[in-house]
Design a protein that fits this description.
single chain, mainly alpha, 2 domains, two-stranded antiparallel ribbon, 2 strands
């Protein structure tokens, strides 16, 4: 599965950039208490109740607070826009979890997990095909111990990912969502009872890599140069 990620990096290196430094520059940032950030995000969600991003942002902040046991978040000064690694930049679940599993049982972190589940569900009520929310919900249900519900949500996320990446291998999205979902879902499936499904998922991942390689080769291939395009224009009698 690692082959796809190497291809992604190679393509991103070769493709011409359409964004200037200003698009990447985050400006000054500051750390704010999580309660303050959530309050601002809730105001955003209230003002844009029909938009998926506010609910998704709230869910992701809660899920990352749970996973990493965060009391502060880094945001852009004056805007409260989360720094890199937050929506809409990132669609995958939080990377890494605080190792002390006993601390995860504390009410503070369990409340964040419950809030994340609630906001992910609300986001999916607005847009049932919002992949980051579907995967985020699955991950949080998994963390909460609701394995059956988590598997169902992972399956829905996998369908959404594969419908986008079947022919591109995830290159156009900058990463392979199919493989990401598979890495979580396969751990929860039974090798005997779910053998057929496991085989299908592994096939998705294999085909995703092959699709990426085909697309990568097309991106590297120079355009065909036709000989007729090199012929000088016909001379007219008036010349």
């Amino acid at each position: 599965m690692k082959g796809i990620h190497a291809l992604v990096l190679a393509v991103l290196w070769l493709l011409p950039s359409t964004m200037g430094w200003a698009d990447y520059h985050m400006g000054e940032t500051e750390k704010v208490p999580i309660g303050r950030l959530i309050t601002n995000l809730q105001k955003w969600a209230k003002d844009y109740s029909n938009e998926v991003e506010p609910c998704y942002s709230l869910a992701r902040v809660h899920s990352m607070a749970y996973a990493l046991e965060l009391h502060e978040f880094e945001v852009r000064k004056g805007t409260f826009a989360p720094a890199p690694g937050y929506p809409p930049c990132a669609s995958f679940p939080p990377r890494g979890i605080a190792k002390d599993q006993e601390s995860k049982k504390r009410k503070e972190w369990q409340d964040h997990l419950k809030q994340a589940i609630g906001f992910y569900r609300r986001a999916l009520q607005i847009d049932g095909r919002h992949f980051p929310s579907q995967l985020g919900l699955a991950w949080c249900l998994d963390q909460a111990g609701y394995q059956e519900a988590a598997v169902d949500s992972y399956r829905k996320a996998l369908d959404l990912a594969w419908s986008k990446e079947e022919h591109s291998g995830g290159l156009m999205a900058g990463g392979c969502e199919t493989e990401e979902v598979a890495s979580y879902l396969l751990k929860l499936l039974d090798p005997q009872k779910d053998a057929e499904e496991i085989k299908k998922i592994e096939g998705y991942c294999k085909n995703s890599v092959q699709s990426a390689r085909r697309l990568f080769s097309q991106l590297r291939k120079p355009p065909e140069l036709r000989l007729e395009s090199l012929q000088p224009p016909e001379m007219t009698q008036n010349c």
